[in-house]
Specification:
The complex is a heterodimer of chains A (about 350) and B (about 250).
Chain A: E1 20-32, E2 35-40, E3 43-45, E4 49-53, H1 60-68, E5 75-80, E6 87-90, H2 102-116, E7 124-126, E8 132-133, H3 156-163, H4 179-191, E9 197-201, H5 209-222, E10 227-231, H6 235-241, E11 244-249, E12 252-258, H7 259-265, E13 270-276, H8 279-287, E14 292-297, E15 303-307, H9 310-324, E16 327-333, H10 338-356
Parallel strand pairs in A: 4-10, 4-11, 6-9, 9-10
Antiparallel strand pairs in A: 1-2, 1-3, 1-5, 5-7, 7-8, 11-12, 13-15, 13-16, 14-15
Helix pairs in contact in A: 2-3, 2-4, 7-10
Chain B: H1 3-13, H2 16-45, H3 58-85, H4 91-98, H5 104-137, H6 143-168, H7 174-191, H8 195-198, H9 208-214, H10 223-246
The chains are: A alpha+beta (about 350), B mainly alpha (about 250).
Chain lengths: ~350, ~250
C-alpha cells in the first residue's frame, strides 16, 4: 500500500547531495524470526525534523542505534554528511552515573567529547562492519561552542540546563532523578556538544504534557540550525514538529516523505460539517446526491458527509452547501491526523503480511 | 570534567575508596598484632597442653599482612576495578559513553588506571601500617626488602586490574566480571604450585614479601614473573581494547 503523491522515497538520492544529512542504502539487521531491519533506505534532509514512527518492535531503536554507531548493520550502507564530533544521541531511557550531579553530567559529556574526539560513528559513510570510507561531505566548521550552541561567555553548563528546565536541579545528584528529568538531562548533555545531527529515541516518553510541549517547542527551534531525527509513539507530537516522517513496520520503511503528504494520502474522503440552521434538512438533501456515499447526523448536530472520492467531495460539497442555503459554521476533514494515516498504513501492511504468510 | 576526575569521584562518592583502603589498613594493623600475640593466644587456649612456638620475627608480621591483603584485599580490589571497568553493564549508560568517544580505550584506560592506582595505594598504605606496627611490636624489617616487595606486589596488583579490565569486555555484568577475574587469578595461583612454572607465573609475586623480608630469595628471582606480567598486561589491554571496541550496545 503506497501513497500516490511523492511520499515514497525508498530509492534514496545521490549520496553526495549536500542537502542530505543522513542516507542509508539497503540497511539490514536481522535478529531472526522477522525481527530487525530489512532493507532500509532512509533519507533525511539537512536541518529538518524527521519523525520515525512505528509500532513496538518495528525496528526504530535498532535503526537509530545503527545511525548512532551503537549497533552494526548486517548489510547496507550509511552515509552521514555531518562532521565527526557533531552527532549526539539520547536513548529512550537515559542513565547517568547516579553519584554525579546534573551539572557534572553535562561537564562530563563535554569532557568526554573533548577527550575522545567526538562520536565514533559519525561523518563519512559506513559499511556494515563500521569501517569508514572516504565518501560523504563534511560541513565546514564543527567547532564546539558553548552549551546549546551559545558562546556569550556565560556558564554554558548552567545555560544548557536552564534550556531544558533543569536549572533548579543542577546541583542534585542524578540518582534521585525521575525518568522525565533524566530525559531532559540527556538532551542537555547532547545539546552541550552543539550537535549538527541529534538523534532522539522516544524523547518524550516520560514527560508530562507541559514537558512534552516544551520539548517539542525546543526541537522545532533546533531545526533552524541542525537536523533532528526522533522516534515517538505520540503521533500528535510527531505531526506537530516533524516536517518529514518515516513509517517503520516489521523492519520495513512503509512510507517516507513529508508528514502532510502521508496525512493527505490516507485521508478518508469525509468531512464533518457544522451548519447554522436545520441540519436535518441538509442531511436529506445530501442523501439524494449521487457523489455522496454516506451521510449521517451526529449527536452534536454536526453532519458527517462521505464522498465517493476526495477530489469530488472537495468540489461538490461546498456547492451542495450553497445550494441548501445553510449557514456554514465549520467544515473539517474527518481523521485528518497522522494517527489515522499511520493506522491505515500499518493496518494495510498487517493484512499484506498475513496474506503473504 | 575530565574522565580522570570522574573516576576519582567514582571512588570517593561511592565509598569504594574507603572500602578498599579500609580492608588493607585493617589487615595492616591487625596482622602484626595477631602475629605478636599468637603465642599468648595459643597458650591460653591450649588447656594443659604445652605448645612451643618460636618467637615471631619481623618477617612474620609482614608475611601475615601480605597473605591476607592479597586474598581478601585482592578480591575487594577486583570488585572495585570490575565496577569501574564494566562500561556496558547498563546499556543506556553505555550509550552515553560510547556516543561521546571514538575509541573504547579512552573509556577503559582512565577507569583501569585509577582502579589500579587505588588498589596499589591501598596496599601500600596497609603495608606502611604493617611495617610500623611490626617495627613497634616485633622489630623493624629491612627497608630494602620492604621496598622491593612493595614494587613486586604492586606489579601483581596492576596485572590483576588488567585481567579485570579484559574480563569486563567479555562479561555482561560487574559480578560476572569479578568472578571471571578472580577465577583466572586463582587458576594461575594454583598453576604456580608446579615447580617448573612457579618462577614464571605472576602469582609468584605474591610470595615476594615473605621471601624477600626473610632473605630466602633475591629480587632477580622474580624478574621472569615480572616480565610475564608485563607481557600479559600488554596482551590483556590490547585484547580488552579490541573486544570492547567491537562490542555492540544491546
Amino acid at each position: 500500500m503506497e501513497p500516490s503523491d511523492g511520499g515514497t522515497a525508498l530509492q534514496s538520492e545521490a549520496s553526495d547531495t549536500p542537502d542530505l544529512a543522513v542516507t542509508t542504502h539497503g540497511l539490514i539487521r536481522d535478529y531472526g524470526h522477522g525481527a530487525g531491519l530489512h532493507g532500509i533506505d532512509l533519507v533525511v534532509k539537512r536541518n529538518e525534523v524527521y519523525g520515525l514512527i512505528g509500532p513496538n518492535g518495528a525496528g526504530k531503536t535498532t535503526l537509530l542505534s545503527i545511525l548512532a554507531g551503537l549497533r552494526r548493520a548486517d548489510a547496507g550502507r550509511i552515509e552521514l554528511n555531518v562532521p565527526a564530533r557533531r552527532v549526539a544521541m539520547c536513548p529512550d531511557t537515559p542513565e547517568f552515573e547516579p553519584w554525579l550531579t546534573a551539572a557534572e553530567v553535562v561537564r562530563q559529556s563535554r569532557g568526554l567529547a573533548a577527550a575522545g574526539g567526538g562520536n565514533r560513528s559519525s561523518g563519512g559513510s559506513r559499511t556494515p562492519r563500521g569501517d569508514r570510507s572516504s565518501g560523504g561531505s563534511r560541513t565546514p566548521g564543527g567547532d564546539r561552542s558553548s552549551g546549546g550552541g551559545r558562546s556569550d561567555g556565560a556558564d554554558p553548563v548552567g545555560q544548557v540546563l536552564a534550556h531544558v528546565g533543569l536549572a533548579d536541579a543542577a546541583d542534585r545528584r542524578t540518582g534521585g532523578f525521575s525518568r522525565g528529568m533524566k530525559q531532559r538531562l540527556s538532551l542537555a548533555a547532547a545539546l552541550t556538544l552543539n550537535p549538527e545531527l541529534l538523534i532522539l529515541d522516544e524523547p518524550s516518553g516520560a514527560l508530562d504534557p507541559a514537558g512534552r510541549a516544551e520539548l517539542f517547542q525546543l526541537i522545532a527551534q533546533l531545526s533552524d540550525t541542525r537536523t533532528v531525527i526522533f522516534s515517538s509513539h505520540i503521533l500528535a507530537d510527531v505531526q506537530r514538529v516533524a516536517s518529514s516522517v518515516g513509517v517503520l513496520d516489521r523492519g520495513q520503511l512503509l512510507f517516507q516523505g513529508p508528514t502532510q503528504t502521508l496525512i493527505d494520502s490516507y485521508l478518508r474522503p469525509a468531512w464533518n460539517v457544522r451548519v447554522r440552521g436545520c441540519a436535518d434538512a441538509l442531511v436529506r438533501q445530501l442523501r439524494d446526491l449521487a457523489w455522496v456515499s454516506g451521510v449521517k447526523l451526529l449527536a452534536d448536530q454536526s453532519v458527517e458527509v462521505e464522498a465517493v472520492s476526495a477530489d469530488i467531495g472537495e468540489h461538490e460539497l461546498p456547492r451542495a452547501l450553497v445550494a441548501a442555503g445553510v449557514g456554514l459554521v465549520s467544515m473539517n476533514p474527518v481523521d485528518a491526523s497522522l494517527e489515522a494515516a499511520f493506522l491505515a498504513l500499518t493496518a494495510g501492511n498487517a493484512g499484506n503480511g498475513e496474506s503473504g504468510g | 570534567m575530565s574522565p580522570w576526575r570522574v573516576e576519582w569521584l567514582r571512588l570517593v562518592r561511592t565509598r569504594r575508596l574507603i572500602a578498599l583502603g579500609g580492608v588493607f589498613v585493617f589487615f595492616g594493623f591487625i596482622e602484626p598484632l595477631g602475629t605478636y600475640y599468637l603465642p599468648d593466644l595459643l597458650r591460653h587456649s591450649a588447656g594443659g597442653l604445652k605448645i612451643v612456638i618460636p618467637r615471631p620475627v619481623p618477617a612474620d608480621g609482614i608475611s601475615s599482612y601480605a597473605s591476607n591483603a592479597l586474598l581478601i584485599g585482592l578480591i575487594v580490589m577486583v570488585f572495585v576495578a570490575a565496577s569501574a571497568c564494566m562500561v556496558d553493564a547498563r546499556p543506556a549508560l553505555s550509550a552515553f559513553y560510547r556516543t561521546r568517544t571514538r575509541d573504547f580505550w579512552q573509556l577503559l584506560y582512565p577507569r583501569a588506571a585509577v582502579a589500579a592506582c587505588a588498589g596499589v595505594g591501598a596496599y601500600l598504605l596497609g603495608l606502611l601500617c604493617a611495617w610500623y606496627e611490626t617495627g613497634v611490636l616485633i622489630g623493624a624489617p629491612g627497608a630494602a626488602a620492604m621496598a622491593e616487595s612493595a614494587v613486586l606486589v604492586s606489579v601483581y596488583l596492576v596485572f590483576a586490574v588488567a585481567v579485570t579490565a579484559a574480563a569486563s569486555t567479555l562479561a555482561r555484568s560487574t559480578l560476572a566480571t569479578a568472578i571471571w577475574s578472580i577465577a583466572f587469578l586463582l587458576v594461575i595461583s594454583v598453576a604456580a604450585a608446579v615447580p617448573q612454572l612457579k618462577q614464571w607465573l605472576p602469582a609468584a609475586l605474591t610470595d615476594a614479601p615473605d621471601a624477600l623480608v626473610r632473605h630466602t630469595a633475591a629480587l632477580h628471582y622474580y624478574l621472569p614473573a615480572v616480565a610475564v606480567c608485563a607481557v600479559g598486561m600488554i596482551g590483556l589491554v590490547l585484547a580488552a581494547r579490541w573486544r570492547g571496541s567491537s562490542r555492540e550496545v544491546s
